[in-house]
Amino acid sequence: MPFFMSPSAFWGLLAAIVLAGVYFFRRQSRTIKVSSLMFFSRLKHPAEGGRRLTRFQAPLILLVEAAILILLVIAAASPRAISGEKLVPVVLILDDSLSMGVNEPDSPRAAALKYLDQTFFSQSAYRFTMIRAGFQPEIIGRHEMTGKEAAWLVSNWRCRAPTADLRRAMRYVGEGFSANVHTFVITDHIPENEQTGRSVWLAFGKALDNLAITSVSRYALGTTDRCFAEFTSFASGPVQLEAEIIDYKSGQVLERISETLPSGAIRRIRFIVKDTSATINIRIAKDKVEFDNNAWLLPVRLRPVDVELRLKNENFKRVIERAVFATGLARISSSSTQLLITDSKDSVPAEEGLWHLYLHVASQPSAISGVIAVDKEHPLVTGFPPVKAAWAIDPEFTAVGKPLMSAATTSLLSVEGDPEQRVAINMNMTPDYSDLHKSPIWPVMFWNLMNWRQQFFPGPLDANFRSGNQIKLALPAGEKAATMLDPAGKKIEEASVWRNQAVFQSSLPGLFQIKTEIASWPVAVNLCSPAESDLSGASSLPPPAMPFAEDAMLQFADVRWWFLLPAMLLIALHQWLSCRRRPADAAR
Question: Do residues 425 and 446 touch, judged by C-beta distance below 8 A?
Fold first, then answer.
């Protein structure tokens, strides 16, 4: 199908009316009185002249002249077409955010698919590359697909991302594709800035009133959990908020919210959960936009670290017990495979997965003198205050590993080993001649130690995530793969394992299960995205019937000869018909 660079030339078709008028009005006759008809072979009205109109006839020469006129007008419109072998490269950037799929089947995604099918996929002149724009651009299928392949693979466009970075996708196209590629951005809002070049913005959105949960959190405080929820109105006027806070397992309603929110208003609530093992569901009722109406809060208390104490000094043992209990992250155990604190080097077993803190007690101690260097980048000494305490050490002690605290050439605190297997922490300190355990350093060090050890427990570090954040978890030894399942048990994503670590990219909000062969862990993903929930700015642009800009059509083949050549042949035919008619008229 040709494209026309100068469509205004079609006004020239009005000349066909003038041409027809000439033939119409020249077909007139009038009566002339003569003395005799004896010299006329037959009575015949003249073809031209007179005041009386005869029945209009369309001679062949009129049809030829009309065809010549039409062909010349089309040629003047500068038609261009896609050549047979060279297909037009087209890149489709598909907005993969949740707002594109709202209110199916009348969603912006459905409208965009209909337009793509009618305008692009049904044509055989294009080669397609489709890019799904979420947090990161991702190519669907392969480069330069046919329309039939693209129409089949576009079903993978599900609109499940919590946001779509369209600018990043456009930069990706600009950096990785040739300069003659034509880019079409399929989204539900108009661009912030005017588009230039070969980028065309196609918007299929519709403004909607919406109520959304825009923030949730849960944290442990003493024997209870404190929770927070935020509701935001993105409606054009006042709207009624009907929300419930529910114990998800039992179905018990913990709190109800019913009030009117003005346009743009935010309602924040805080509540206490006494059952620290309960799963909390926060939901909005009677709202047409559903993807941001639910949020879940799973228990946040991690399994405490089992700590075994093997200390000869009973007074010092009680000091360490108090420090361990004060962290709130650990418990004392008679036998532990997680953390051992000892003052005897010979009592440390070489067991994989067992961390140990070795307190080196000097027989001939001496006091520290000089400046203490601290490596505050390490998680064990993060947040350490200045050292202001008496510290007795063994100046001859040499610890293997990375020094975290040192005075001159003497190591005070060092660490060695792989956290995913076992860690050895060595501390140079004689408790009978030190009061370090009375300084602020002491509780900070033990809290850091327990928190660091918890990070390498099997399972995720947290149970509640925001859409788009990575879910990182440590796996039990020997596990090679982990799978994320939805509440129905359907596999959503599978992650490979490297060094007992797995990473998932959370996308859809909801409750999920991460499962391995021998273990499983629940995780909650909440949208909490004001930018995605705000549908008041969604809008549409009239989709162009001609998708390519004028400068893009300059690359197409000039096909005026398709019309000029037939016009020249018809002109020759017209000349032949005209010459053939004159002798016949003269013979009469």
Answer: no
